[in-house]
């Protein structure tokens, strides 16, 4: 098969190959200054590759070796032995359970209170700007300073919490340091105090995007404020609620600063009986106290897998919830309506 081209008299143009034509079309698609855009976004990818991607991959490689700080360059291949040692270690399962319980105790009340505060601030209140600014004060406060204050509040002998519970309700003095559940509640209260206002502002921003006509229509139908909150506000900010649940789950899994500073000696053991040692503290103890960087890297990758599983479970539950509520909101069509629609 031969390709023939016809030229008209006086036509001096040469036939263009398909490859060159495609290249010309690609060059036309690039707008003026388009190449400069890559220069602006390149720093992000460079920093991401240097400080996120490379450490992530290197940690996976280190987790397969026996690595010490003094002899970091002399890594001994051990395969999955670090993971086997981790999963057969009672300290790991204790930290895993503590991470789950502290995460639940801190996340559930935190998000519920944030939702309620945001709902109140969404109305026209006097001084609401002051209250909105005040919500960020705990988040802006130094974690070390906040933890020191909470340690004093939860002191067994001189703390305000025990004074209040014992003086008002005549309850026995609670050891907020050595008691397992009491210490976990104390650590969780620090997390709740710091992040409730932050999440409340996120909810408030989402609530202000809801169309006011929906509330007006609900009020005309006789819906109370509580009914409007359940059937208008909650469905309207459901994506934001899912986002905060996922972010709070990730933060609870990586919890480190609060339990470390709450310990009187500042050690990563989580109390005398490891009653509030989290996975983050365990990883720090393995790497920097016990000089087992390979085992610490295995713990880090295990935490990463736990976070991925938790996020996937949250997304799956959210989608099932949407399908369930969607099926409930379907309005049945009666026989009379079918007849009217047919006519």
- Quaternary assembly: single chain
- CATH topology, which one? MetI-like fold
Q: Characterize the biggest β-sheet.
A: 2 strands, antiparallel
Give the strand content.
under 5%
Which strand order spans the largest sheet, edge to edge or round the barrel?
Answer: 1-2
Give a structural overview.
The protein has 343 residues and is mostly helical. The chain has one domain: Orthogonal Bundle (MetI-like fold). Helices cover 70% and strands 1% of the residues. It has a two-stranded antiparallel ribbon. The longest helix is centred in the last third of the chain and has 36 residues. It is flat, with a radius of gyration of 30 Å. The N terminus and C terminus are likely disordered.
Can you tag this structure with a few keywords?
343 residues; mainly alpha; MetI-like fold; two-stranded antiparallel ribbon; 1% strand
Please summarize what this structure is.
Mean pLDDT is 85; it is low at 1-8 and 329-343.
List the helices and strands and how they pair.
Layout lengths: L17 H12 L4 H29 L2 E2 L9 E2 L3 H7 L2 H32 L6 H8 L1 H4 L2 H11 L6 H10 L10 H28 L4 H9 L4 H12 L1 H16 L3 H6 L16 H11 L3 H36 L6 H8 L1
Antiparallel strand pairs: 1-2
């Amino acid at each position: 098969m031969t390709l023939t081209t016809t030229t008209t008299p006086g036509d001096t143009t040469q036939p263009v190959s398909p490859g060159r034509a495609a290249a010309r079309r690609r060059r036309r698609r690039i707008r003026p200054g388009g190449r400069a855009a890559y220069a602006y976004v390149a720093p992000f990818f460079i920093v991401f590759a240097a400080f996120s991607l490379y450490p992530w991959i290197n940690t996976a490689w280190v987790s397969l070796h026996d690595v010490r700080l003094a002899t970091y360059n002399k890594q001994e291949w051990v395969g999955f032995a670090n993971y086997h040692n981790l999963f057969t270690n009672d300290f790991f399962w204790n930290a895993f359970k503590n991470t789950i319980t502290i995460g639940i105790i801190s996340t559930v009340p935190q998000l519920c209170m944030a939702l309620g505060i945001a709902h109140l601030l969404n109305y026209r209140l006097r001084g609401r700007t002051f209250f909105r600014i005040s919500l960020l004060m705990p988040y802006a406060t130094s974690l070390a300073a906040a933890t020191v204050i909470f340690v004093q509040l939860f002191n067994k002998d001189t703390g305000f919490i025990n004074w209040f519970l014992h003086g008002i309700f005549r309850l026995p003095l609670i050891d907020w340091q050595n008691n397992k559940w009491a210490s976990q509640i104390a650590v969780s209260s620090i997390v709740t105090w710091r992040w409730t206002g932050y999440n409340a502002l996120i909810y408030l921003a989402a609530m202000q995007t809801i169309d006011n006509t929906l509330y007006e229509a609900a009020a005309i139908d006789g819906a109370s404020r509580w009914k409007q909150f359940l059937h208008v506000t909650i469905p309207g900010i459901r994506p934001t609620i899912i986002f905060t649940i996922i972010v709070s789950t990730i933060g609870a899994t990586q919890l480190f600063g609060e339990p470390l500073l709450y310990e009187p000696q500042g050690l990563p053991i989580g109390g005398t009986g490891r009653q509030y040692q989290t996975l983050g503290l365990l990883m720090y103890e393995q790497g920097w106290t016990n000089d087992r960087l390979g085992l610490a890297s295995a713990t880090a990758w295990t935490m990463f897998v736990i976070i991925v599983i938790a996020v996937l479970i949250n997304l799956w539950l959210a989608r099932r919830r949407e399908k369930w509520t969607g099926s409930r909101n379907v309005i049945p069509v009666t026989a009379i309506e079918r007849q009217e629609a047919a006519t």
